[in-house]
């Protein structure tokens, strides 16, 4: 069995730090501290992989070791397929993951190709090599629950109980994000090892197999107004029904099982993990049928909690769509989290800004955090986040941080990091990137672009333009994906990573990419008619010919 570890220290095995950065981030994606199932190259999100197979992985590593600073490596769904001479301000790697021609863009066709070894599922940051463990999603989840608290509970979640399921790579952020906002959360997962992993990383406080015990602890914490996260082992369909039958009051209901992938991501009711695996192998079609039927029930229970007064929202796993297709006609009665809580931030080009210390030294992140506090002293939400993140988040693999920054802010922070590397205040280059819960790089009608004001939810041009402009601007590795988050047929999205190695070359590229990337968020939302985006474009000088002139 392979055991890939995040590589730390100042000695490099590639011909330059930029290539080394790619290599280290690939290793990091597969570090057992970071990845959910590293032995099968699965990083997170069902079957989101970092490379197509171990042979491809080895070839990628070898190619990166020999890659010149003016060459570009092409990756097709996790397999290295070409190296071309380009130039030293062009990306070192370009990736395309799971992109299918629309008429074939479904799981059935994808699985056929996957079986033949012709494709892999790149999810979002798995196949674009910028996954940083659950911390990456904690910030987005923290923002979501924070905004939900503002809208429904006077700014804090103290005295509320959230019920959710799925404590995997992404979903594992939910318990921490809820307690960071003061609330109580019961997180159900059918796989006990997933809960154990959240307890190890301090994202979840306690674990139990006993529903009554979970409800008793939740009620006590609700009454006391103290935060508490409880990992409950069970199948969500069973636990949710039992909680409804007991009449226990749930204040907030959501879900992050991997419902986007009915074959690999969701365990049907009545099946143990082992039984599910056996059925998946023996009769995949029947498995999918049972999983979908369970999801339909799951959504019906979520709707019932909503009817009983809970705030309900979909957390980007496409479970409403599956239930709807299974005949639950009111499945879309609860909104997606983006239109409900995140869109106003997207209009300002706000979104994930993540950075990783290639040295492996946590002190580098502490120095970067300090710089961020200095640069944005009035951003209270950001300062609170940094305090909480430093206190509560254990690094997984290479030390990393994520914060949400807007148009203008990302370039400011990126250039500051490059200066700190140049001046030796940070000991080795820093990788700067983002995930795909983002303002200007994603077309995903059931998630990031749900219910757009002008009805342009399914327009994929924006995601393509994002990848193209970031390539032109000189990102270090740029990717284009299909099917991340919500599954095949439901999304197109682009990734961006750029390396701050302290050089002037990096400075020019950072300045361009950290402007074009969030700029696309402002442009996309201004074009759709959002006033905030138009205002930001005018005030901050984003040139949009038919809007700002
Ligand atoms: P994951 O595959 O690592 O985890 C899913 C978890 O759900 C697993 O631990 C599994 O045991 C559990 N599960 C499956 N069926 C269950 C059932 N019936 N009852 C209880 N638990 C069950 O996936 P992840 O990375 O945590 O992502 C979860 C979902 O969230 C995916 O659909 C993903 O696409 C979506 N997602 C959302 C966002 C966001 O911003 N909200 C971001 C990324 C991913």
TrEMBL record:
Species, as recorded: Macrococcus equipercicus
Principal EC category: lyase
Record keywords: Cytoplasm, Histidine metabolism, Lyase, NAD
Top-level division of the source organism's lineage: Bacteria
Domain Urocanase Rossmann-like: 133-341
Catalyzed reaction equations: 4-imidazolone-5-propanoate = trans-urocanate + H2O
Protein name, entry field: Urocanate hydratase
One BP annotation, GO: L-histidine catabolic process
Residues reported in the UniProt entry to bind NAD(+): 45-46, 123, 169-171, 189, 194, 235-236, 256-260, 266-267, 315, 485
Annotated function: Catalyzes the conversion of urocanate to 4-imidazolone-5-propionate.
Keyword Lyase: yes
Family: Belongs to the urocanase family.
Coiled coil regions, renumbered to chain: none
Cellular compartment(s): Cytoplasm
Pathway per the UniProt entry: Amino-acid degradation; L-histidine degradation into L-glutamate; N-formimidoyl-L-glutamate from L-histidine: step 2/3
PANTHER family according to UniProt: UROCANATE HYDRATASE
InterPro entries for the chain: Urocanase (IPR055351), Urocanase-like (IPR023637), Urocanase_C (IPR035401), Urocanase_central_sf (IPR038364), Urocanase_CS (IPR023636), Urocanase_N (IPR035400), Urocanase_Rossmann-like (IPR035085), Urocanase_sf (IPR036190)
Required co-factors: NAD(+)
MF GO annotations: urocanate hydratase activity
Presence of the UniProt keyword NAD in the record: yes
Ranges of residues in domain Urocanase N-terminal: 4-130
Free-text remark on how the cofactor is bound: Binds 1 NAD(+) per subunit.
E.C. designation(s): 4.2.1.49
Highest classification ranks of the organism: Bacteria, Bacillati, Bacillota, Bacilli, Bacillales
Residues annotated as domain Urocanase C-terminal: 344-537
Gene name per UniProt: hutU
């Amino acid at each position: 069995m392979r055991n890939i570890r995040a590589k730390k220290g100042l000695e490099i095995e590639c011909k330059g730090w930029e290539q080394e950065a790619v290599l280290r981030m690939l290793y990091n994606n597969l570090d057992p501290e970071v990845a959910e199932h590293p032995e099968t190259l699965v990083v997170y999100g069902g079957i989101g992989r970092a490379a197509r197979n171990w042979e491809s992985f080895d070839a990628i590593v070898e190619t990166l070791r020999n890659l010149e600073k003016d060459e570009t490596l092409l990756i097709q769904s996790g397999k290295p397929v070409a190296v071309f001479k380009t130039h030293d301000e062009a990306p070192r790697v370009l990736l395309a993951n799971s992109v299918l021609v629309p008429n074939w863009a479904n799981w059935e066709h994808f699985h056929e190709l996957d079986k033949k070894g012709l494709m892999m599922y790149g999810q979002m940051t798995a196949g674009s090599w910028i996954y940083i463990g659950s911390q990456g999603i904690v910030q987005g989840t923290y923002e979501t629950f924070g905004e939900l608290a503002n809208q429904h509970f006077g700014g804090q979640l103290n005295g509320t109980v959230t019920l959710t399921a799925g404590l995997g790579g992404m979903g594992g952020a939910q318990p921490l994000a809820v307690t960071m906002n003061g609330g109580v959360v019961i997180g159900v997962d059918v796989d006990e090892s997933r809960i154990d992993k959240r307890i190890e990383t301090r994202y979840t406080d306690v674990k139990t197999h006993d529903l009554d015990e979970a409800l008793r602890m939740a009620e006590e914490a609700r009454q006391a107004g103290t935060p508490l996260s409880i990992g409950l082992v069970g199948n969500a369909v069973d636990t949710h029904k039992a909680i409804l039958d007991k009449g226990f009051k749930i204040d907030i209901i959501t879900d992050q099982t991997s419902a986007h992938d009915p074959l690999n991501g969701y365990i049907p009711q009545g099946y143990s993990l082992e039984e599910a695996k056996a059925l998946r192998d023996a009769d995949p079609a029947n498995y999918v049928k049972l999983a979908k039927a369970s999801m339909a029930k799951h959504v019906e229970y979520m709707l019932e909690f909503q009817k009983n007064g809970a705030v309900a929202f979909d957390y980007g796993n496409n479970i409403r769509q599956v239930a709807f297709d299974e005949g639950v006609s009111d499945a879309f009665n609860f909104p997606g989290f983006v239109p409900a809580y995140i869109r106003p931030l997207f209009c300002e080009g706000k979104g994930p800004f993540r950075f990783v210390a290639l040295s492996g030294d946590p002190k580098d992140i502490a120095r970067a955090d300090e710089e961020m506090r200095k640069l944005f002293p009035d951003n209270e939400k950001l300062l609170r986040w940094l305090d909480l993140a430093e206190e509560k988040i254990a690094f997984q693999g290479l030390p990393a941080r994520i914060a949400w920054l807007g148009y203008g802010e990302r370039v400011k922070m990126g250039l500051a990091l490059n200066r700190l590397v140049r001046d030796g205040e940070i000991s080795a280059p820093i990788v700067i990137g983002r995930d795909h819960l983002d303002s200007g790089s994603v077309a995903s009608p059931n998630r990031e672009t749900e219910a757009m004001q002008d009805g342009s939810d399914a327009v994929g041009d924006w995601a393509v333009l994002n990848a193209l402009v970031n390539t032109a601007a000189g990102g270090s590795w740029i990717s284009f994906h299909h099917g991340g988050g919500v599954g095949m047929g439901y999304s197109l999205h682009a990734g961006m990573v750029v390396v701050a190695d302290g050089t002037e070359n990096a400075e020019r590229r950072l300045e361009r990419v950290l402007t074009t990337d969030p700029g696309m968020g402002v442009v996309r939302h201004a074009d759709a008619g959002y006033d905030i985006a138009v205002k930001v474009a005018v005030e901050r000088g984003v040139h949009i010919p038919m809007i700002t002139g």
